[in-house]
Design brief:
With 113 residues, this protein is mainly beta. Helices cover 0% and strands 38% of the residues. It contains no helices and eight strands. The two termini are 20 Å apart.
Length: 113
């Protein structure tokens, strides 16, 4: 898992490639941490991406165009590895390609800015 950093004069942040999850957000003037530290004793996540659903679906299944698909609670994005496509100023472009979990989609692109 890679961790990518962004910062400007106001904030510093870190984004993990696993789940494209924001794992750290710090106010530069105050040095205050704004996210949970991810202590697995309580909860191993920080701020997961919930895609394509927030919550669960009935019987852990959904239908699209007449076909049934299995779906875990909160979708699948939070448990997949993303790659860094590019950086531009105070933006990261993270992409997940080629999954078989969801019908015809082949690319999920997130912009962190």
């Amino acid at each position: 898992m890679a961790v990518y950093q962004l910062e400007n004069e106001h904030i510093y942040l870190e984004v993990a490639s696993h789940g494209a999850e924001l794992v750290r957000l710090v106010g530069k003037k105050t040095k205050k941490e704004y996210l949970f530290d991810g202590d697995p004793k309580y909860w191993k996540r920080h701020s997961p991406i919930l895609f394509p659903f927030v919550g669960g679906v009935k019987n852990k299944e959904y239908r699209y165009n007449g076909k049934t698909y299995t779906m875990t609670q909160h979708g699948f994005a939070r448990d997949m590895e993303f790659t860094l496509d590019s950086r531009c100023g105070f933006q990261l472009y993270l992409t997940r390609r080629q999954w078989k979990i969801i019908h015809s989609h082949s690319v999920l692109r997130l912009v962190i800015s």
